[in-house]
What does this fold into?
Amino acid sequence: MPNQGKPRNRFLFSKALWVLPAAFLLFFFLVPLVKILLVMVSRSGVLSANAILQPLLFTLWQAALSMLLTLALGLPAAYIFARYNFTGKGALRLLTTLPFILPTVVVAAGFSALLGPRGLLNGWLMQAFDLQIPPISFMNTLGAILIAHVFYNTSVVIRIVGSALVQFDPRIEEAGRVLGGSRWRVFREVTLPLLRPSILVAALMVFLFDFTSFGVILLLGGPKFATLEVSIYTQTLSMLNLKMAGLLSFIQLACTFGLTLLYTRLNGKRSVPLMPRLKGEGVRKPHGIFEKAAIVFLVIILIVLIVSPLAALAIKSVLQMDVSTQTTSLTLAHYRELFINRNDAFFYVPPAKAALNSLYYAAVTVLISVGLGLTASYALVRQQGLKRWLDPLIMLPLGTSAVTLGLGFLITFNQPPLDVSSFPLLIPLAHSLVALPFVVRTIQPALASIPASLGESAASLGASPWQVWRKVELPIIHRAIMVGVIFSFTLSLGEFGATSFLARPDTPTLPVAIYRFLSQPGAMNYGQAMAMATLLMLACALAIGLLEKLQVEGSAEI
Amino acid sequence: MKKVILVLLIGALLAGCTSKPAGPQTLTVMTHDSFAISEGLVTQFESENNVKLVFLKSGDTGSAINRAILTKGSPEADVFYGVDNTFLSRALNEDLFVSYASPGLAQIPAEFKLDDQKRALPVDYGDVCINYDKAYFASQALLLPQSLDDLLKPEYGQGSGTEGLLVVENPAISSPGLAFLLATIAEYGEDGYLDYWQALKDNGLVVVNDWSTAYYTNFSGSSGKGAQPMVVSYASSPAVEVVYAATPITDAPTASLVGDGMCFRQIEFVGILKGTQNEKMAQKFVDFMLGKDFQEDMPLQMFVYPVNPDAVLPEVFVTYNQIPETTDALDAQLIAEKRDVWIQAWTDTVLK
It folds into this structure.
């Protein structure tokens, strides 16, 4: 009986699964965080209650509003992507993922080109109605913050809720219809409750992203708005008041912890059993005028809100203005200039190299976060007791200030071989901290809903544990894994805060390179930033397209 | 297919782990993101001194100083470049640097030497001034403001709706923003500057957080084509507009307002970090930074002015930049003491 020892080994193995993610979080999150917080609070500085309460309330308020708006657009969008086939669906889905990778500086430029005082829309309105003053004031308003958050995070809802919808057994809804439920009633009483866990996950992730929002508040909201994250930044870098910054960081962490607990309570333990599903099952062409009109309406909103700012950047990258004649013409000069080191600059980095740096860090981030995310998800599903401490611990990095954690990394990892200049992996490790909660939040629910009987029956038919995983569990969770892969990939590509602390000057990422251009005057610098942002979008679109192609091939095998 | 990808990814992972090559001694320079230098000069210093230069950049000046302060005692680097006169006293009070009486200091004018004990040595300076959009002022036949007081005149006020013609940066976030606030404090004194800002605000002042937004989103003279024809930037920005023009141009689209009291001078310093194991080499690097070659390289790399009067300025600087005859100065120790109070009072007046 050679198989006899196996169950016991497997039992031990699964008992020890939590060690890996826990060790990762201990070394690369808790140690640097605790170290920096201790240093911060031990320094002298002035504390003021007013400087805490106001940003805290505003942070919560704008995050809640942004989350609701993002859900209002993301949920219907997720539904039409998951349930209907229509022309351009693949391209639109891909485009909605791109905002995630764009640095706020260029996004602000995109929005300004459309909605700024001299933007496209104001220009049209002023011409059409013969106005002297631009009618829309968008920059530096709460509206700008909300719209930018919807722009950035709608894809979170589309991907998370969408993958749950695709994984859904259509027979459950069909049963509801057969039993006489109207389409609306089936949706409300069957579909919606079944989607609850994934909607909650999406809401939590979007809320946390908005909660720690920095660039959007700073660049689009303007100086009248300050979130906790912005206050931490000013207290640390401008006032050098580390004590206050430490306190604010701590409050941010406490809020994140509280939110995670609230989420766990709301989520409960119920999960719907999932079975492997065929690709394309439950997807159809829209029928009838109502469905078609609804889809057209949503597609238009997505194009206006998400695609048009992206397009504005790409268009700006190929336009140049002749100052003497005040005429605009098409050009590839900005792209050509990217490849020239005109003044023998020591820190010049060819765009291909910056792109390769970015892609390399993103690939490593995917490996680390998906590897650890899978392990952590299995541990959480198999040992419910872990939930109490491992779950909130995994979520905490999302609510940690990039400035604080960046400084923590710098004071913790400053001796060779573990220092910034000799250990380039610090960057993807920092990215993985933010990506890990995502991966776990998407994989764990899918894993939890696999009925135990499924694996057991496969095993009793003689399948090895590996075969059970490969043939039974993987087909069910592969969509969730792919969502995790795409998110960790895009998160890493777009991350700027921690990267700006940790990147070596000779190996910048694309966002770091874009910031370099926009920190100097000159039409060529501006154009090159737009060109670089367009290249970043292209590189990301290509990579995601490839990943999704892989996924299609993968599911065809099954 | 998946296995192939996995192998490729792992290969990529290992490729990134190449260790530092063993070789000559290394000298590490910690600085901010704006630091730039010619490749040729780096090679020259390296070969002359048989040393390898490593640069650590971490964000803006504030981040870089924090990094130095937090790793004080066992510093990550040997030399720190980029602390300016608004942060100088903080850095000196933190006791970051050791003294070094570089022979290069001899030629440098006294006005730049703010630290008697020679712990922080001046390297370059830049004047924060208001830049204006030449085309806008010409098309509107508008006179240029000659002083800070002039900015309160109605013609620079609410030209287009509720917004006036001037955009400034938030001094709590941006270093030129802080410099401009300091210019007003030097001009109107601690008792008067808030009234001035209140009047500016009433005249439609636009405030944004950072330089990039002010210059590229709000300023009409940049490629962003914003709504304000005046922006707080640097006196060297017009030359940069020419150097980085989209098509070769012979006239800068912008210029600076350099009336009395309108500009604030930022001076940047270099210091040898306390606890360095390479003090001799660090001293050589400081000498190198004060020397003619590096001083002449800086203008076109970092768009700042050299403190060494022997350094010859590039032609674009001479042709397109206006140099203020007088700039405002405030005592570095006073800035260190009052900075937070001033910024807070400014925030309460202008942003509330």
